[in-house]
Design a protein that fits this description.
The protein has 10 helices and 14 strands. The chain is α/β, with parallel strands linked by helices.
């Protein structure tokens, strides 16, 4: 009787399968790094999807809310921060990159998941894409509705993200973003809507794959963006300040000068169209370029390619917020303008 109970318990725990002559392969180990955000948010009302309190739950509560995680991976959790994504700063980014690089270097760890608020999720994911060296999967996930909402999307998103991080098919693809049954490249994916659950998209480049239930299905073989750089942030404690200046009709140079006075070592322009700026601003950017001060010209349109510039640097396919991350990382390595230009205009 005791043996029967032991076997039944083993079947229930997934250690043995009926008809199998040996134990199942051990489940892959996945580490979940929590930073807060809507996925950890809560409200007194189960219909509240906009005025809830973000970062209300800790990593253990997130994991316990999805017991199905134990069926796909051996999951452990670490609380890196517990804030709304508007409060993510350099210190948190560096803690994340250092922690992920250390754990993924361990042979026993297969992948990592980062839970994050959606407002700046794409920036953190892009930063990690440029600073994590392992071919193992790193998946950034969030939710558009808090954990207390009737139709909370967080639990399913988290289960899919862990499943993706545990998958061999997710290796050698760079950092991935997983929300709303979709798999995107962190290099290209951006938030496109304030409240809709299908907000994360790459307009020009498309998705890498999708989920059928919790099973990831990729459209392409493993690859990463062409000329994607990598930055070693081991030992780095802070980054040079980079400011973003938004262009509009009748723009002057006041915000550019204010950014420089405030200590900016580089500026990103959210330009109109193909990184366009008014004549006076273009003249000032040329002066700064000749002085060796980096000004990256991106676009406020939401998609498209900002081409090479004589006055400043074209951002290519990177939007202003991702251009800021790349310029920040580039400046941490070199202040040489031709070197910085190559990161963007290769």
């Amino acid at each position: 009787m005791n043996l029967q109970k032991t076997l039944l318990a083993a079947f229930a725990a997934g250690i043995f399968t009926i008809g199998a002559g040996h134990a199942q392969e051990p489940k892959p180990a996945v580490v979940v790094y929590a930073t807060g955000g809507t996925i950890a948010g809560a409200s007194k009302s189960n219909t509240d999807t906009t005025t809830y309190k973000a970062a209300s739950l800790g990593v253990q509560a997130l994991l316990e809310a999805v017991p199905e995680l134990a069926q796909v991976a051996k999951v452990s959790g670490e609380q890196i921060a517990n804030v709304g994504s508007n409060a993510i700063d350099q210190a948190i980014l560096l803690r994340l990159a250092h922690a992920i690089n250390i754990r993924l270097a361990e042979p026993s760890v297969h992948g990592a998941v980062v839970t994050h608020g959606t407002d700046t999720l794409e920036e953190t994911a892009f930063f990690l894409d440029l600073t994590t060296a392992s071919p193992k999967p790193v998946v950034v996930v969030g939710s558009m509705r808090p954990a207390t909402a009737i139709s909370a999307d967080g639990p399913m998103n988290l289960l899919q993200a862990v499943t993706l991080a545990a998958s061999k098919d997710a290796e050698n693809r760079g950092v991935l973003i997983a929300l709303n049954d979709r798999i995107g490249s962190a290099y290209y994916t951006t938030k496109t809507n304030t409240t809709a659950v299908d907000t994360f998209r790459a307009t020009e480049q498309g998705y890498l794959g999708m989920f059928i239930g919790t099973v990831p299905k990729f459209y392409y073989s493993a690859a990463t963006p062409v000329h994607k750089p990598h930055f070693n942030v081991e030992g780095v404690n802070s980054f040079p300040k980079v400011s973003i200046v938004y262009m509009h009709e009748d723009q002057d140079n006041e915000q550019i000068e204010a950014a420089i006075r405030a200590g900016a070592k580089g500026i990103v322009i959210a330009g109109t169209g193909n990184g366009s700026v008014p004549p006076d601003v273009k003249k000032r950017i040329l002066e700064l370029t000749e002085q060796g001060f980096p000004v990256v010209r991106s676009t406020r349109t939401g998609s498209g390619f900002a081409t090479k510039k004589m006055e400043g640097i074209g951002s290519g396919a990177l939007n202003p917020q991702k251009s800021r991350i790349l310029l920040m990382l580039a400046l941490s390595q070199s202040s040489d303008l031709p070197t910085i230009r190559r990161y963007f205009e290769e």
